């Protein structure tokens, strides 16, 4: 396993479980692998949860963050080449949903085994991007966006020292989102489960439901009460969606 890119939080020893399905989790903008600790502990050892650690945060804070969704996807796909070939699925929230989708596309283009299912949370399905689309150009823009989205990490905004550490990754992630230009291509062949909060200000339910058009397989939509970070405090509910879809008993 590529320990630079992938983290396992399932148990004290963090050992790789034998057999079973694997779930690769992709964090939101500014997020880190540790955001998936609660889900990992809930699902392990029945599900081997691996969380992606993007450069520029936590134990990778000295590395330069990556400002491209597709480049992130390519590098994650490379890292996944270092793990065994057991069946796996992807779960991504917000920016992580797009990185998960693009990683699945990258693997398909390489004729590599694809995921059993994509769980795409808190992100509208991609649309062709106009050339003059607005992009966030200042720290103030990024901070305003984070405040608007809310979530349990919003308190970091009021701590100057924490913000100084967090801003490089946040800037890079929002530049990655702002510069992401979806390229139409063949639909995936794995099922998609789209998840969203009913009051999400940036991912309307109808546009999240449009992920169904990005696969030739089945798809479903799960709507929860709440905003962009509807999943905060809903670990067991999200776990139930995942295990039911994958046919796993925890």
From TrEMBL:
Belongs to the thioesterase family. One of its GO terms (biological process) is lipid biosynthetic process. Pfam families: Thioesterase. The keyword Hydrolase applies. SUPFAM superfamilies: alpha/beta-Hydrolases. This is Thioesterase. It comes from the Bacteria. Keywords: Hydrolase. GO terms for molecular function: hydrolase activity.
């Amino acid at each position: 396993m590529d320990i630079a890119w992938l983290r396992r939080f399932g148990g004290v020893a963090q050992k790789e479980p034998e057999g079973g399905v694997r779930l690769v989790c992709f964090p939101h903008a500014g997020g880190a692998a540790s955001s998936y600790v609660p889900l990992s502990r809930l699902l392990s050892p029945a599900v081997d949860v691996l969380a992606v650690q993007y450069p520029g945060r936590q134990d990778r804070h000295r590395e330069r963050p990556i400002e491209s969704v597709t480049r992130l996807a390519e590098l994650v796909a490379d890292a996944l080449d270092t793990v065994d070939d057991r069946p796996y699925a992807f779960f991504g929230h917000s920016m992580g949903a797009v990185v998960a989708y693009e990683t699945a596309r990258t693997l398909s283009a390489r004729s590599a085994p694809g995921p059993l299912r994509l769980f795409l949370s808190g992100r509208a399905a991609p649309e062709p991007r106009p050339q003059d689309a607005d992009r966030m150009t200042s720290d103030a823009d990024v901070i305003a966006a984070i405040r608007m989205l809310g979530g349990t990490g919003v308190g970091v905004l009021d701590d100057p020292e924490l913000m100084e550490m967090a801003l490089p990754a946040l800037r890079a992630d929002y530049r990655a989102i702002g510069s992401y230009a979806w390229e139409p291509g063949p639909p995936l062949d794995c099922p998609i489960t789209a998840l969203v909060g009913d009051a999400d200000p940036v991912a309307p339910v109808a546009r999240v439901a449009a992920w169904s058009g990005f696969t030739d397989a089945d798809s479903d939509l799960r709507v929860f009460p709440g905003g962009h970070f509807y999943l905060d405090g809903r670990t067991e509910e999200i776990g139930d969606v995942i295990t039911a879809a994958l046919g796993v008993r925890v």
